[in-house]
Amino acid sequence: MSNILGVSAANNKEIYADAIVIGAGFAGLYAVYRLREAGLSVLGLEKAIGVGGVWYWNRYPGARCDIPSLEYSYSFSDELQQEWNWKERFAAQPEILEYLNHVADRFDLRPHYRFSTTVTSAAYDSATGLWTLQIEGGGQCRCKYLIPAVGSLSLPKAMNFPSIEEFAGPVYHTSHWPHQKVDFAGKRVAVVGTGSSGVQTITTIAKDVEKLYVLQRTPCFSVPARNCPADPVIDARIKSNYAALRNKARSTASGFAIDEATKPAHAFSEVERRAQMERCWAEGGLEFGGKIFSDLVVSEEANEIVAAFMRDKIAEVVKDPKTVELLTPRSYPVGSKRMCVDTGYYEVFNQDNVELVDISESSVEFTHNSVIADGRTLEVDAVVMATGFDAMTGPLLKMNISADGKSLADAWEYGAKTMLGVMVAGFPNMFLITGPGSPSVLSNVVLSIEQHVNWIMDLVSFMEQQGIASVATTVEEQEKWMGHVADLAEGTLFTRADSWYIGANVPGKPRVFMPYLGGVKTFAETCAAIRDAGYPNFNFQYANALSDRSVDA
Ligand code: FAD
Ligand code: N01
User: Is 399 buried (19+), middle (13-18) or exposed (0-12) by CB count in 10 A?
Assistant: First the structure.
């Protein structure tokens, strides 16, 4: 990119940094901060024109987090967590973006970044011990440590609908929403997809549009958010001992500071079970799944009890029986796809201007002014794709990563393989954040990001102190870890759903369950034990080929 080439040409020297971080979301910003604080030179590269990652790109109407913001935020600086006041229980996208901009300024991270800079390839050469990155439009930079903090949900799925290009009106994807307000007032709009992004978009734009067609292939399970304005009294209480909340979150499986269920469904009488479900439903939020019964995702019976409860809730709200039936999920266990969290989703289907269109049996096609779905031609002015992401592996594979001529795409031909979700055998000095094989996407992701980065930094500091040039995990260690990840998944109902966790949402993607199901507490303990044992079975190369490198980050 010209800014990098410009610096390079002006200084007439190679762009080199000890560490290059790709991405300026929650993960990239924290990694840049920690690397700099450790005294390394660090360069951040980000495709977008600003920081924020997910919260920069996903500007669709209604976008907000579904983990309470007091928890879905950094814990590394007490000053930061004390001074920032969230406006709502679940912050909306603009507020989270504002927060991340504040973090970038407060910790002076922006100067480390080159924005509008897309990495098109990253190649490691063991002869030099360096990674070389190519930048879209030309230019390259090199580093010892490569940290692709490119996110798990940053590459939208291709919109491969036959004839979409025929449609003359605007087609939006939730994850690449325009910066200027899109005005749907008086418009007829089709939304394709009813996952988390679809649910939030549908609920929000239903208020404005003249007509909304919701094109649904698979119905979701959705829990009420119970969002509300922040309560200054509660916030002050939490802030008076914020560490307690954070420590509680770290001691759970999910990374939420909740009292996780300890009892299986059958330990309750029928009356108690109902009361437990009603209580968790009334409290709302994604934590519903973590609090309800300890065997929700392992016992078919327990799962069916909760699924039936949630199906009844749909029927209680939605008036039209045919719509109720279509909205009712029956083809996969509850929790095996990420639950949606909504504010009035089911209520929307009682509005005269909203219509649910079943696309489970037929393809979707487009003409210049309409969408053809379920055998009907529906005239629309705009289309919104809420069709999701090539999750977890997509952004990494898109970057053409290779080491000594071997590509990551080849290494992952039959599914992603990592050690701890952080390291990949054959790819030295590359550290993934929240990669496949880590608990990340099943947790409060910010908490997982901090844990991963802290562990990576312990390893990097160890290497710097010992004069180590490179580190790699072994195929054996990686196989052992992925075997463990697979064993944990086999014991659950997660493998029964065609979810993005298992790659089933992208045609042709290997069907491998990617997240680690042991929970964030066990994961962190495992990582710490490896560190404390001095990184057994890691391949360290001691000859430091990088010591005479100049620094220009
Ligand atoms: P990202 O925020 O995705 O950042 C990655 C960055 O890398 C992007 O800015 C991208 O532009 C950049 N990048 C990628 N490839 C390249 C390249 N080749 N060259 C240069 N730059 C590149 N998680 C939760 O725990 N709770 C929530 O409530 C929650 N809500 C979510 C809502 C939405 C709409 C989405 C999509 C995800 C949500 N998530 C949530 C998951 C979310 O992915 C994480 O919480 C977190 O924001 C991820 O941060 P990250 O820094 O790892 O990745
Ligand atoms: O994507 P999804 P998302 N034809 O994959 C449908 C996080 N997130 O962007 O289920 C027709 O979940 C697809 O149907 P089906 C969160 O982790 C969080 O909504 O494949 N339909 C599904 O209905 C989440 O899990 C928040 O049959 C097609 C939908 O599109 C993750 O991001 C908000 C189709 C895609 O759902 C992804 O969520 C937003 C096709 N060809 C996102 N392809 C919070 O609230 C796909 N679909 C915090």
Answer: buried
| Integer Cα distance of 170 and 546 in angstroms | 50
179 HSE (CA, 13 A, CB side):
5
Residues in the ligand 2 pocket, defined by CB under 6 Å: 65-66, 153, 174, 192-198, 200, 217-218, 338, 341, 359, 386-389, 500, 505
Domain 162-385 has CATH 3.50.50.60: yes
- Residue 118 — φ and ψ, nearest 5°? -105, 130
Rounded Cα distance between 389 and 525, Å, is: 30
CATH architecture group of domain 2-155+391-541 = 3-Layer(bba) Sandwich (3.50)
> What pLDDT does residue 224 have?
97
Partner residues linked to 134 by β-bridges: 121, 140
Tell the residue number behind the tokens 């794709």, with chain if given. Answer: 385
DSSP of 192-236: E--SHHHHHHHHHHTTT-SEEEEEESSPPPEEE----B--HHHHH
Residues 6+ apart with CB under 8 A from 252: 258, 260, 290, 519, 520, 521
pLDDT, residue 14, reads 63
Instruction: Give the pLDDT means over successive 10-residue stretches in the chain (553 positions).
Output: 34 77 98 98 98 98 96 98 97 98 98 98 97 96 98 94 94 96 96 98 97 98 97 97 98 95 96 97 93 96 98 98 98 97 98 98 95 96 98 98 98 97 98 97 97 98 96 97 97 96 96 96 98 96 56 36
Contact 88, 94 (CB under 8 A): no
pLDDT at 13: 47
From the list 530, 498, 81, 193, the residue with the least C-alpha distance to 331 is 498
In this prediction, residue 4 carries a pLDDT of 37
> What phi and psi values does residue 148 have, to the nearest 5 degrees?
-80, 95
Q: What are the strands, taking DSSP E only, across 274-388?
A: 340-342, 354-358, 365-366, 370-373, 376-379, 382-385
Q: What share of the chain is helix, strand, coil (3-state, %, to 5)?
A: 35, 15, 45
| CA 16 – ligand 2 centroid, Å | 39
Cα separation, 237 vs 507, in Å, equals 48
pLDDT on residue 76: 98
Range list for CATH 3.50.50.60 in the chain:
2-155+391-541, 162-385
Check if the beta carbon of residue 67 is closer than 8 Å to that of residue 256: yes
Ligand 1 centre to CA of 53 (Å) is 5
pLDDT value at residue 6: 31
Contacts of 173 (CB under 8 A, 6+ apart): 156, 159, 384, 385, 386, 387
Q: Indicate which ligand has the atom closest to the C-alpha of 60.
A: 1
Measured by CA distance, the residue closest to atom 20 of ligand 2 is 505
Q: What is the DSSP string of 423-453?
A: B-TT-TTB--SS-BTBSGGGS-HHHHHHHHH
Nearest CA owner, ligand 2 atom 9: 388
In b/e form, how buried is each residue of 424-453, taking b as 16+ CB within 10 angstroms? bbbbbbbbbbbbbbbbbbbbbbbbbbbbbb
d(CA 418, CA 33): 25
